[in-house]
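Justification of computing resources. Each target in the renewal requires a structure prediction run like the one illustrated here; the chain below, 127 residues long, is used simply to show the kind of job we budget for.
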Amino acid sequence: MKPACWEACFLYPCPTVEHSNNCLLLLCVLFLKPSGHYTKIIKTPDYKNYKSVSLPFTAPNDGYICGGVYSLGTTACYIYINNTQVGWNHSGGGSNTASPFMYPLSKGDIVTAIGYDQFRAYFIYTK
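Resulting structure tokens:
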């Protein structure tokens, strides 16, 4: 199956399609570049520079939160950053099971979670 843009190349003259693509590119540049959306480069984790954290946790700098959700039975854990659900870990009923996670954080982000037996996490600073 060919994408719709493939058909557009045959239905409309090439200058029209090229103009549409240029307009779309211009809109993306005008919106994304000044706003900072999708332009932040993810920094490299400094795995030697970390600290153990408990929830709720507020990121002191840009970095990563990583760890595991531990379960004593069947459970579903929901992980939130700034009140937005970013993760869901399900443990299927075995005892002493763990689900790993790792999420990037910006300075000031608040991490919370619900529905877990044990939650072990580390904040990893960036280089």
